[in-house]
Amino acid sequence: MKKLINDPRNVVREMLEGLVDLNPGLALLDGEAVVLRADLPSPAERKVAVISGGGSGHEPAHGGFVGPGLLTATVAGDVFTSPSVDAVLAAIRASAGPAGAVLVVKNYTGDRLNFGLAAELARQEGIPVEIVVVADDVSLRDLVAEDRRRGIAGTVLVHKVAGAAAEAGKPLAEVARLAREAAGALGTMGVGLGACTVPAAGAPGFSLGEDEIELGLGIHGEKGVERCPIRSADEIVETILGAILADRKLGQNARVALLVNGLGATPPMELSIVARRALACLREHGIVVDRAWCGNFLTALDMPGCSLSVLALDDERLALLDAPAQAPAWVPGQPVRAERKVVSKASGSETGAGEAAPGPLSDRLRKAAHAVAAALEAAEARLTELDGQAGDGDLGASMRRGAEAIRALPDSAWATPESAFAAVGNAFRRAIAGSSGPFYATALLRASRQVAGRPVPDAAAWDAAFAAAVEAVMEIGGAKPGDRTMVDALVPAHQAWVEARRNGSTVADAWQACVTAAERGAEATSSMSPRLGRAAYLGQRAVGVPDGGAVAVATWLRALSPHIG
């Protein structure tokens, strides 16, 4: 286990100290794991306090939601452990006044007991307290009664409703009523792709196979209600929303808020993919999504996975969600369009894109290009391995996409050398992201201009095309021989071609010299210290394996051999 911690016993306190140090609007209660607003007035002037909390490990919940319009205070227990009665009572005493406090409690036995007893003790001291229990986990619908379900990520939306009501000056009973009604209109379900690691335990809580997921899990690193084979993101979203909508009886014309919540180790890319399908799925059911959030709100340490929460809305509840709030982790809910906005691209023309009658070299050009495609596809694994050792590992996939782009070109692309170079260059530009696409596209477009208007270019035109392509790569990338890049295969290949042609070699022999020089140049990069590209960030650690880009050049040059001459 690798964790950026000091002593596992001190993670909660040190985490809260860091949170408060970074946010001047927060304060830490002396001697307790309690975070509260730093701007609280005297007790007599305080509005209803909204207090929540629970075990740590759910960051940014709960301390990240302390602030005006949200929570007044939060109480943190040890990781995945309910805070003590005394800690909850200390939070009530420190943040509440005669107006009282609403405790928003997730439906776990420890939380209910400790928050409940603390509330009773506070009442004895004359502080009015109401408890709102959130039990939004619909995955348990067939296993336990509704009031026995777990409270999970949808609790964040209840915090917002209660906090806005309290900030508006509503009395205790009204704040509690609005929060309870929101909790009753809420459904959440999650999916885990793997386990999390509790710092004190030092090992994952359970293990999953590479093709397994846990559906319907809580927020404490526990297993779900069902282990099943992994599915696509869209299928998982449809399963989760199907359960929520059926349980909450939401259908045509319902208005809702959507919360897409990461469990700690899911990147924004994947959460956005989930959000995309969730919005579409709700629309397909005739449901209007008035507001949506996507990100990490209530996590389970470093668990990969997510949850979806759906909250039924009316005008009053929507106004409470929209009410101003300031807290370190809170972001306003975004209004959601009824459909995705897509802007049309500006029209333009591409060199070599027009239709042309097949020329004398049309068939040979197509066969040569398809040979290159086959060679790049066959080399995908090796190129991926090489690039992974000194780069980001995407070269093999990029070259495969380039090969697929070649195969997809219409017959008209091969009409002339000019059209072939331009068509392949533009296809690579569209198909290959990163650096490879622009390099090859620029080189091929430059080459196409050297053979323009020549159905059968002469030797001088071919030589000029080769030279222009090599020069283009060096110009846009800034690489020189010795920098450990594709240039270290291209430059010696071109020099060998020119020298062999000058010495009277046949075209076939000159090309063989070209290929041999490229392969030697690519192999030589294994002893070079990189000076450009991602490999340069590794320094001497990249030495020992050849550069993937140079190997790719040697690969496609050799593939052209049977077609040159």
Automatic annotation (TrEMBL):
GO terms for cellular component: cytosol. Keywords: ATP-binding, Kinase, Nucleotide-binding, Transferase. GO terms for molecular function: ATP binding; glycerone kinase activity. Residues 7-330 form the DhaK domain. Residues 341-361 are annotated as: Disordered. InterPro entries: DhaK_dom, DhaL_dom, DhaL_dom_sf, Dihydroxyacetone_Kinase. The keyword ATP-binding applies. Residues 363-562 form the DhaL domain. Gene3D superfamilies: 1.25.40.340, Dihydroxyacetone kinase, domain 1 (3.40.50.10440), Dihydroxyacetone kinase, domain 2 (3.30.1180.20). Coiled coil: none annotated. Its EC number is 2.7.1.29. Residues 346-360 have a biased composition (Low complexity). GO terms for biological process: glycerol catabolic process. This is Dihydroxyacetone kinase. It comes from Chelatococcus composti. The lineage of its organism: Bacteria, Pseudomonadati, Pseudomonadota, Alphaproteobacteria, Hyphomicrobiales.
